[in-house]
Amino acid sequence: MRSGRLSTVLAVLVLTCLGGRADAVPTEAEGDPGRTDLPGFRVTTVADGLAIPWDVQSIGGGRLLFTERDSRSITLIDADRELHPVEIDNGSLWSSGETGLMGLEVDPGFDKNRRIYTCSGWTKNDGSHDIRVHAWRLSEDLGSATRTETLVAGLPTTSGRHGGCRLLVLRDGSLLVGTGDAAQTENPQNRNSLGGKTLRLDRMTGAPWPRNKWADEKGRQRYVFTYGHRNVQGLAQRADGTLWSAEHGTYRDDEINRLGNGRNYGWQPGPGYDESPPMTDFSLPGKQYGARWSSGEPTIATSGATFVAGKEWGVLRGTMAVGVLAGSRLMFVKFSADGKLRWTKAPAALKEFGRLRSVTRVGNALLVTTSNGSNDKILRITPQP
């Protein structure tokens, strides 16, 4: 157990929306439900004293795992909220800038196979770097993890900028991977680059998912589910099965996109990685798909995302909860059944914790990690009537 990092059960913060008032994120939505029907929020600190916890996931029985980006570490939180380092071989895991040990996902069959997945920077034998998705097996006592497979390698990187990298096991059993464009002009529109994409693969073998649009073609495009992205930070599957992403914009236009097999979302920076083109450039050849929500100017840096469940959330039930880094808030975005934007809310009571990176649903609660660079926390958020 790491001393100084255990957060015992702290005083519960019952946070209200100051009379129901909430701050709206820029939107052109219609059908706003008003400012008087949001719930209050109960926020508890699950763990503190952390350093950029990038992702957190449940392994059942009240236990959690989380990654920390720069230290390239995995930690177990037991049912008593005590922290235990998970011993891993991280010697070849590489961290630089925005890249390190990032996305974490737990296999649906974890109770039997103790299998988890990570996405991280990697140092190759020649000293160069890429980003890779690995499968690991945790020991019986959960004290160590062994890397068992490299599921996909060759995700591009240079300085570590725009490294992605979110993971999500879908209901059909495939693994969805959100990647960044590595701040390289050619990656987003090049289907044989794995940068600026969402990738879909067999989580057990690493093979391209057979229903990918280009699964029968040659090259790396076999892995590609969608392309034309800048830096995918969040992935979520709605109750109706639809797939969604959140990604960082330039100086404007963070995006939430509804994903579809083979779609191009239109990011194409100019020569020399000129970021003045729009996030969705409809002048490109072929068809481009516009965002379902966009921040406008300036960017607020949307990050991890999940869909809210449970009737106790009231009007927020079924919304997409999105962590916001630069804008320091938890944002709730409501889409209609056919995927049209209805409204956004960013409750003032959830703007007190600084930069928010990952958002994970465990039962009807939300787990949110802060990314302030020091004394970061994992928060548990539930609604209060």
UniProtKB/TrEMBL annotation:
The keyword Iron does not apply. Residues 1-24 form the signal peptide. InterPro entries: 6-blade_b-propeller_TolB-like (IPR011042), Glc/Sorbosone_DH (IPR012938), Quinoprot_gluc/sorb_DH_b-prop (IPR011041). Gene3D superfamilies: TolB, C-terminal domain. Residues 50-380 form the Glucose/Sorbosone dehydrogenase domain. It comes from the Bacteria. This is Glucose/arabinose dehydrogenase. It comes from Nocardioides thalensis.
